[in-house]
Amino acid sequence: MDPVRNPFAPGAGQRPPELAGRDKEVAAFEVVLERVARGRPERSLVLTGLRGVGKTVLLGELRSMAIKRGWGAGKVEARPDADLRRPLSAALHRAVRDLAVRHRAPERVESVLSVLKAFALRAAPEGAKLRERWQPGIDVPAAQGRADSGDIEIDLVELFTDVAELAQDVGTGVALLIDEMQDLLPDDVSALCAACHELSQNQAPLVVVGAGLPHLPAVLSASKSYSERLFRYVHIDRLSAQDAHQAILAPITREDADITSDALAALFEASGGYPYFIQAYGKAAWDAAPSDPITDEDVAVAAPEAEAELAVGFFGSRYERATPAEREYLRGIAELTEGRDEGVSTADIAVSLGRKPSSLSPARDSLIKKGLVYSAERGRIAFTVPHFGRFLLGREE
After folding, report:
1. Does residue 139 have a pLDDT over 80?
2. Looking at the record, which segments are called Disordered (predicted)?
3. Is the pLDDT of residue 281 over 90?
4. What's the sign of the alpha-carbon dihedral 20, 233, 55, 61?
5. Model confidence over 330-346: pLDDT tens digits?
6. How many CB atoms sit inside 10 A of residue 32's CB?
7. Which residue, 93, 67, 66, is CA-closest to 166?
8. Which end of the chain offers a freer environment for a tag, N or C, measured as fewer CB atoms within 10 Å?
9. Is CATH 3.40.309.10 what the domain over 23-235 is classified as, yes or no?
10. Two domains, one topology: 23-235 and 322-393
11. What is the C-alpha separation between 184 and 193, in angstroms, rounded?
């Protein structure tokens, strides 16, 4: 098969050639856009799921939908130990620019930009010299007395309110998309929840769409108890066999090629239905096939190549971030689960490693912070990366 025409595209956050199995989420967001535009109350949205299920891709799709509807839209990727103020300023600056082209009063836009600049400038640490201060690239004077108190919760409420009112002026809304939301600092999580709460009470046309690992709802709930009612939570999971077949077959058909039903079944079995793995195995199977159609024998030949690539780029890059003590903990999970994608008791890990539970807490907490494991319920732990246990058990130490 011609490798130039290979339709599959494994990549972090890269949109697949066929966005299969997400029709329900896309349709639900279409309703959100319409309701907010009509001034109807609507909750912000939080997408949760393991790595490789397509949360980032879905965020990109929702952002595109908002832009097509004339909304202002900005995207943030949260990072551990990094303050939200600076990236949030850049994202909202983008959203305001989207709205500015439709607004008939330049002075009104400039007024909001001045508040945004005041908010952004507070990202500089206290006592920072002028040359060390980050400049947000907003060509208006910073406002005074609005969104510049230094208290992120107060400032965020004021900023969101002003940006939402600007959108309301032109009869549209603003979508703020936050990826890796579980990595936000505690103060930023609290501020974001408070701002969303204020907006929902005032029915302001600004919606936050967050995406993160399965324990994100617990992170939000620990910050503000009302977050359970503040957001609409949507769990993003692996694709069903039918949707996975569509994700494989549709792009192949568009290239005037074909694949046998046995090969479709083999690709689903190898990938487990996880969208990222479907792209990886699909790409390898296309390249391995000597002729059309792709067969299950081609999938069998291609599987080791796909697994070798995943071992380096998807699994290995994460494993290398772990310390020796953390790797011991990861290995313990893998052995107890026998490589399956399921959780395990932290007490059982301690027993299997012959250690006291308290002595393993630093390794566990660090792995959670690094995004390699998560705790969806007290006393249990699981990998955030599908098939990670299988990778560890097959790895030669």
Report:
1. yes
2. 1-21
3. yes
4. positive
5. 999 999 999 898 999 99
6. 22
7. 93
8. C
9. no
10. no
11. 12
**Is residue 184 scored above 70 in pLDDT?**
yes
Q: For residue 178, what are the β-bridge partners?
A: 76, 210
| β-bridge partners, 232 | 45
Token pair for 363: 């390794």
Token pair 């692996």 is found at 238
Which tokens is 92 given? 């909202």
Reported as a pLDDT band with limits 50, 70 and 90, residue 377 is: confident
Give the residue-averaged pLDDT of 199-212: 92
**Beta strand 380-383 pairing with 373-374:** antiparallel
Residue whose structure tokens are 């406002």: 143
Residue 382 half-sphere exposure, CB side, CA atoms within 13 Å?
19
Longest dimension (CA), the chain: 69
User: Which residue in the block uniquely carries the two structure tokens 């098969």?
Assistant: 1
Phi, psi of 386 (to 5 degrees): -60, 145
Beta strands in the chain (DSSP E): 44-48, 72-77, 174-179, 206-212, 231-235, 344-345, 373-374, 380-383
Both structure tokens of 336: 């107890």
d(CA 347, CA 379): 7
Closest to 282 measured CA to CA, from 51, 54, 16:
16
Q: Taking 90 as the threshold, does the pLDDT of residue 302 lie above it?
A: yes
Pairing between β-strand 231-235 and β-strand 44-48 as defined by DSSP bridges = parallel
Helices 261-271 and 275-288 meet at what angle, rounded to 10? 130
Question: Which band of pLDDT confidence, cut at 50, 70 and 90, is reported for residue 127?
Answer: low
287 three-class SS: helix
Peptide bond into 362 cis (omega under 30): no
What's the whole-number mean pLDDT along residues 208-226? 91
| pLDDT of 126 over the 80 cut | no
Paired tokens of 134: 């980050």
Cβ–Cβ under 8 Å, residues 73 and 178:
no
pLDDT digits (tens, 9 = 90+) for 27-54: 999 999 998 888 888 889 999 999 999 9
Q: Residue 38 class from Cβ within 10 Å (0-12 exposed, 13-18 middle, 19+ buried)?
A: exposed
Q: So where are the chain's domains?
A: 23-235, 247-318, 322-393
Give yes or no for a contact between 44 and 203, defined as CB atoms under 8 angstroms apart.
Answer: no
**Interval 159-168 mean pLDDT:** 95
Q: How confident is the model at residue 396 (pLDDT cuts 50, 70, 90)?
A: low
